[in-house]
Amino acid sequence: MTPKAQDNSSPAAPPFVRGDTVHDCPPTLDDQGVIDFCRNGFLIFPGVVPDEINGKAIDHVDNMDSSSRPDLAHTDWFVDAVLKNPQAAGAVRALLGRNFALPVKISNHRGSLPCSDKGGWHRDGGAVYTHQLEYLQVFYYPEACTDDMGPTEVLPGSHFVRTKHNMMSHFGKIAGTVSTACVAGTIFLTAYGIWHRRTRATSGPTGKSRFRNLLKYTYWRTTAPQRDWITEPAFDFAGIDFSPTRDRALFEQSQGAIAASKMFAWLSGVQEQYVKRGGPCWPLGPVGMPAGLQKTGED
Amino acid sequence: MVEIKTQLQLCLEHFRAGKLSEEDLQAAADLVNRPKKQSILYIQAPTTVPHDTAIGMSIFEEGKDPEGVDENGEFLYPSLKAALEDGWRIVKFPGMTSGMDDQNSYGLGFEFVLERWR
User: pTM here?
Assistant: First the structure.
């Protein structure tokens, strides 16, 4: 049977609020930053959380009997320094718009060191295939996570590649993955459906915690998308390469770029102006580019 | 699991050293009689070409890291061609169903399933 792809998202993406707290702050991404997110499905912000907060976060998760769901979402110092971190939350603001909903649940993927088991490749449960970016899955490393501590790895562009969790169970090494090994205080943002896994930890217990701690939480959009991040009037979208870095391997010809440009047009609030007619029109050529993305003075 | 070839090589070495034992030969004989086991190798390629490069790999064989990598973290075989030349046999070619929808992308490239018996 021929598979029939469906866009399961809501057509109008009406504003809604989940949880009871929203936040606004200056956006920290420019057009290129947003495009990079659309292309690859993730952004990494190394060491943006201060060491003092990292230490408190480690103490917090180490002192819990079960750290699978630390109650940090309502802890002021954590909310202020991590969930509202100016650089990371500024990127969330750029991607999800004003007054985005703050996370209501914090999970900790706490891994023993060493750990021979790799987490299998997967997309997290509940992911929806769509170019409409309604929510972001965000991760925070309170301690440095070196390559031998089993950092999460992601597959760039895979947020546009359809599959099922259980159909990925036999996957092993994949070329072109990106490790999130990092310094303490690193936050990385992902499109929820991106393929990812924990890697093998070969180190013994290390660091203050003696475990690998990776906190995970989700932000939500509450407003309709518009291009209100850091913009440059002269930015030329006609010359942008929207192709994910794994375009040839993962996608039918140019479909990766088309998917990324569709997400970008939606985020820019000009989706209605973007009609993919086929052939070398935008983003593969200048014809058909949404008028809202054209440089000032252009037709 | 020791392979027959490995055990015979050991017998040969022991023979040359003048210490070949009945146990050595019995171990070889037992290996001949044991049921063979199927090993499975998955290789994902960017196209349907059965000699193409590997973009993904995993192996299910006793004693092997299922990750499909060598000690340097590189693919055990850089391509399908290299795996075939090492004795693997393709038992399943990539399914074409997902290709019927050319406006969306499905799965990890084109997946070949290979086997060998040991």
Answer: 0.88
